[in-house]
Amino acid sequence: MPDLLVPDLDPAICERLRQAAADWGKSLAQTARDLLVEKLQPSKAEVWTAADLLRKKIGKVSGNSTAGIREWRDNVDAHR
Questions:
Q1: Over the stretch 1-60, which tens digit does the pLDDT of each residue have?
Q2: For residues 7-19, b (16+ Cβ closer than 10 Å) or e, as one string?
Q3: Does residue 76 belong to any structural domain of this protein?
Q4: Residue 55 counted as domain residue
Q5: Of 2, 17, 30, 63, which sits most exposed with the smallest number of CB within 10 A?
Q6: pTM to 2 decimals?
């Protein structure tokens, strides 16, 4: 897993991060990871755009999979 070094971090920001970690009962590193994930997770719009692009790439899916799904579900030996 990659590490991140942040040079020249404002001491006031570092102190706020340290205080947040203490308030939340987490380590400084875990608090930084949580905040980065929260801030950088994709928006709903980005997720839907990616889904639309995937649908466009796959194209139209035709046919009825009901029979195949029932056969797979009911075939006990296939899962052993």
A1: 889 999 999 999 999 999 999 999 999 999 999 999 999 999 999 999 999 999 999 998
A2: eeeeeeeeeeeee
A3: no
A4: yes
A5: 2
A6: 0.57
